[in-house]
TrEMBL record:
A Gene Ontology molecular function term of the record: sigma factor antagonist activity
Keyword field contains Nucleotide-binding: no
Membrane-spanning ranges: 77-102
FecR protein domain segment(s): 182-271
The name this protein goes by in its record: DUF4974 domain-containing protein
UniProt xrefs under InterPro entries: FecR (IPR006860), FecR_C (IPR032508), Ferrdict_sens_TM (IPR012373)
Positions of the Protein FecR C-terminal domain: 317-386
Length: 390
């Protein structure tokens, strides 16, 4: 069933090979319901309508099962069933059975709510719809110490390139640091025409003019690169843990300090990476592959991914593939510049898949999570508390 889920997803996005199409044909053979599902998945307009109606799906188990202890073998079988159901739910709008990931031989889940802190009338409560999404902004600093805050008007369109405005008052110095704060994003074009999109809470260090022998930049946080090919000047991207050699390509690197894993995802072209914190060999990536670097493990893991999911943030959406709420909230907190707290630690492990709009206000964005996950978001001062719906 896990393979069917994967094939349905690839079929929906139009990436099935001829062999995979034949496998799906055999799977649907003799079942009018399965054949009808394949017809719906092939209808782009239908998928668009359904995604608009139900953008985020919680993968969950029926309530009567919540208090049971489930053996590992049964849990694995249920997980496979739910993975298929989640894909089907996105495109045909049906309910999904519940699945909460955990570790150990079994799990025991409580349906009770954690006690809520009493409201303090002296603290001003901010409404969720007053929490606005991030915007185009950054701070550019030179090695001489001069700095300027950048907004959307500090860029200009030249053909298909976005450049810093000539009126931007920054010294002409060898190295610059572009710092995008929480609640910000920014795109810059380097002197070689390489384009870089920076997500919230990210930095890019780069020279104003690259040297004749190589092009080298440093990144923290998340960035998407479209690198200009230049065989005479190899392009390197450094994070604290790795060095990426780029061969003229587009890729995404996610290296937030509070994430346990550094993700490098190749969309087109070719790149290689070498760890800086452990002595290891060079790892080559091909398009559609993601390298996962665990900061506490010298081994680099590889897996096949859909790059459009990883780079959804650049195209106006948060896209999640079976992602726990703890990870989702880290992304949302950076973009909306909020602090948050879970009323129960179990809520961190609720898994979702789907997407939510990036430029909506916070109330609109989390309403999708609330409806799909049976959750409630409330504010107390500048903090957002996440609890179960009563």
């Amino acid at each position: 069933m896990e393979s069917v889920k994967r094939l349905l997803y690839r079929y929906m996005i139009g990436k099935c090979t001829s062999g995979e199409l034949e496998e799906l044909r055999r799977w649907a053979e003799g079942s009018p319901e399965r054949q009808a599902l394949l017809h719906r998945l092939a209808d782009e307009d239908y998928i668009t309508r359904q995604l608009a109606r139900r953008e985020l799906v919680r993968i969950e188990r029926p309530m009567e099962d919540m208090s049971r202890r489930i053996s590992a073998s049964r849990r694995r079988l249920w997980s496979r069933f739910v993975s298929v159901a989640a894909v089907v739910a996105v495109v045909i709008g049906i309910g999904v059975a519940c699945h909460i990931y955990n570790v150990g031989d079994g799990i025991s889940l409580s349906t009770g709510n954690a006690p809520m802190a009493e409201a303090d009338d002296s603290v001003k409560v901010r409404r969720l719809d007053e929490i606005l999404p991030g915007s185009v902004r950054a701070r550019l600093t030179s090695t001489s110490g001069s700095a300027v805050t950048l907004r959307a008007q500090d860029t200009s369109q030249v053909g298909n390139r976005i450049l810093l405005s000539h009126n931007c008052p920054v010294d002409r110095v060898p190295e610059l640091c572009l710092d995008v704060p929480r609640g910000g994003e920014f795109k810059v074009v380097l002197e070689d025409s390489t384009e870089v999109w920076l997500n919230s809470e990210s930095t890019l260090r780069y020279p104003e003019v690259f040297s004749p022998g190589e092009r080298r930049v440093q990144v923290t946080g998340e960035a998407y690169f479209v690198v200009k090919h230049d065989v005479s000047r190899p392009f390197y991207v450094e994070t604290p843990e790795q060095t990426i050699r780029v061969y003229g390509t587009s890729f995404n690197v996610r290296a937030y300090a509070d994430d346990p894993i550094v993700y490098t995802t190749l969309e087109e072209g070719s790149i290689s990476l070498t760890r800086r914190d452990f002595h290891s060999g060079e790892v080559m990536l091909s398009p559609g592959h993601q390298a996962m670097l665990d900061r506490n493990n010298p081994k680099v893991e590889m897996k096949v991914v859909d790059p459009s999911v990883i780079t959804g943030w650049r195209n106006g959406r948060f896209v999640f593939e079976e992602q726990p709420l703890a990870s989702i909230m880290r992304d949302l907190s950076r973009w909306y510049d909020i602090t948050y707290e879970f009323a129960e630690t179990e809520l961190e492990n609720i898994v979702f898949m789907g997407s939510i709009p990036r430029y909506a206000d916070f109330a609109t964005a989390i309403s999708i999570i609330e409806k799909s996950g049976g959750l409630k978001f409330i504010t107390h001062g500048d903090k957002v508390l996440i609890t179960r719906q009563l």
